[in-house]
Amino acid sequence: MTLMAVLILAAALIGIGLYGALSQQSFVMLMMGFELMLNGVLLAVIGFWALGTGGSPKGQLLAIVVMAVMAVEMAVGFALVTAVYRRRQADTIEGIGTLKQ
Amino acid sequence: MTIVDLAFVLLAAVAILAGWRVFVTDSMVRASFLLLVSFIAVASIMLLLAAPYIGVATIFMMAVEMMVMALFMVAFMMNPAGLNPMMMVHQNRLAIGAGVATFVGLTIAIVMTDLPTRELHPGTPVIHDLGIELLGPSMLIFESAGVTLLAAMIATVVMSARSGRFGPSDEGSRPPGLDRDGAPAGRVPDAEQDDNKSNDGNVDAHGNHGV
Description:
Chain A is mainly alpha-helical. Helix content of chain A is about 75%, strand content about 0%. Chain A has helices at about 5-25, 25-50, 55-90. Chain A is elongated and about 50 Å long. Chain A starts with a helix and ends in a 13-residue tail after the last helix. In chain B, helix 1 (about 5-20) runs antiparallel to helix 2 and helix 2 (about 30-50) runs antiparallel to helix 3.
């Protein structure tokens, strides 16, 4: 298990997450794509921490900040989904085409 | 190949396969559980990398988060059980291209880079070090993360609340037209007119869209 292997796995997760975020129509699936990308970022941070920087505690702190970002993204994302659904009865990206204007 | 390497390869395969299946399965509840599987595989790799605190915290957080996600799926989405085949994607080719390009680009960058090789010394008290760091030199960052979470909680309640303090925020509003005094731009949701009559009156504030 080398740092390169861990980072390539993280890159694969980020690529899959980007595909999901760009291609999915429903908001919740879109957020799954974001989650998968952050998952890759978290793995890359921990990989660098354990195999690159010799276990400096600040690396774990960065991982905790990434986890906080994940939680915020999830909570605010679902609040936005709820708000949009209340006002527009929309649950897909195409349902809020008025934002284009 | 040691047993740690073998476990890493297996977990990496599980993480990637489950992450890919998330976007091709018909059932949305199944998709959220597949995402949970992917997260647990990544968290197990973190455990292999001697990060027990972060790994276990990720498992706990994601288990709860995916349950919430599955609930939202059932509440908001059509066809949550996946009884009918379904493909809800747009710009699929562009998205596949972007995903593959990202992976290839990042991989080239990783392979070309001279990566640092200072490995974690076995037997380092990592959780003890993390605790000292969190409540010592980096306390401000840690507390900022906490305040950010509090702000997110307040924002969540405000945004998902049924109405503001002075009633619905867009009451009587009307999207601007493309030309002066023209009809409002954009698509009016099909369900809007019908739903206003059957609902309990909470969504009728913008019932004048498009008239």
